[in-house]
Amino acid sequence: MITDYLNRSAVTHKDKTAFSDETRSLTFYGLQQEAYHIAGALIERKITKRPVAIFMDKSVSCISALYGAAYSGNFYTVIDVEMPDQRMDKILTSFQPAAILTTEKYLERVKGLCTGGSIILRYEDCMRDPIPAREIAAVEERIIDTDVAYVLYTSGSTGIPKGVIISHRSLTDFIDWAVQRFGLDESYVWGNQAPLYFSISVWDVHVTVKTGASMHIIPQQCFKVPRYLMGYLSDHKVNALYWVPSALVFPAALGALKSAPPLDLKDVFFGGEVMPVKYLNKWMERYPEARYVNLYGPTEVTDTCTMYEIDRRFENTDTLPIGLPCKNMDVFLLDEEDALVTEEGAIGEICVRGTGLAYGYYNAPEKTAEVFVQNPLNRVYPEIIYRTGDLAQWNEHGEMVYLSRKDLQIKHMGRRIELGEIETALLSLEEIESGCCLYDKEKSLIVAVYKGALTEQELRSRLLGLIPEYMIPNRWHQVEEMPLNLNGKVDRQRLKEMYITK
Prior knowledge:
Elements: H1 2-12, E1 17-20, E2 25-27, H2 28-44, E3 51-55, H3 60-71, E4 75-78, H4 85-95, E5 99-102, H5 107-112, E6 119-122, H6 123-128, H7 133-141, E7 148-154, E8 162-167, H8 168-182, E9 189-192, H9 200-211, E10 214-217, H10 226-235, E11 240-243, H11 245-253, E12 267-271, H12 277-286, E13 291-296, E14 306-309, E15 324-325, E16 329-334, E17 347-354, E18 360-361, H13 365-371, E19 372-374, E20 384-394, E21 400-405, E22 409-412, E23 415-418, H14 419-427, E24 432-440, E25 445-452, H15 456-463, E26 475-478, H16 492-499
Helix pairs in contact: 1-2, 1-9, 2-3, 2-7, 8-9, 11-12
């Protein structure tokens, strides 16, 4: 269980700073004590094995809250305080929390939300309550590894968020693998970029606690000014990152890496979307001693199911492999007839089985049944796999290469096209900072939205040397800023609303 991590580190690294944000820091022992206060408040109200919503700023206190939920035998979801009330209401209606943990800052807002019978607990009040050590120990003794640890809500195609249910067993199997595979230890200083409601943050938080490392929550404003960002990493002696590619692209695209201060980077992990090779090369040129690792996996597989450690040179026009399965995960490709794809270059849907699989979607059995299905390769006993909806192929090195979302595979002018392949070619151009390709099905048009210095004519000419003519976008939209969603990825849905005719 994840509480085992903190139980150990609160002893072995008692007075070491575990987490820091803009306003304060907290030692491992201090983190455990704050978590105990919160756990006690929940147990006192006889809330255990129940859903707990955390409505707090991204902060050290929020990390205390999620561990408090764990110590009380409950499972949590972190809610983004900046999301619209309408989306919050959908999440709370689905999650039906027994309790909502919040701070004085958001108390009135939480009271105004659709909370049903939820008990509202104020963080400041919890810190003043006594710690019922005996009761917490009794509850912790009854937690088993198949209990739910957390639920993370992701965007749903119908506009209804989906809550991905992850158990303690799935989480600890993932964290234990990461620590062992990459030799992570207490010498690491992590610079956190991901929101605490995004699956990448699971690595940041729990690797830190398991290993006795340290983690700095990077202020959001740093990701608006690249020199501030690189200066922050230097000032706080950050030596490890696990960011979405968009965050890594930001300083590289604006030239900030050239004048960036020296960093003693051990590792740069990235995942959640495709990493443009040209920007990866800029990072590798500036910080050649670091290890660079491409991690792939949806929230439904506890963040990661394949990995590729960069071990050779890639040209800007290349696509990075997503590599091979992680320990305890089987990742394979199925074609449209559910036959196993093994041939080099053949395309199939990425499917996953193993300990990291989620239980499904919270309070949504129909959605769960659509993608958590019986393994079609196994007809003799129950075995659930997760169908990711992502398309990939095997390369000449026996590595898996991500192509695009299944719903981004289009039929255009009689040809089957992966929009991801067009995006890879577009992003390989030096003058293009970011880009996204959409398909206007009603008008049969490939639409490209990009931020960069090239004109439409220049783009067409340059891309003709990289992709076939039938893949060249029919319509182009140059933007000053590419819209990003709350997780820092390109907001594809927003671009559809802006540029695709309804």
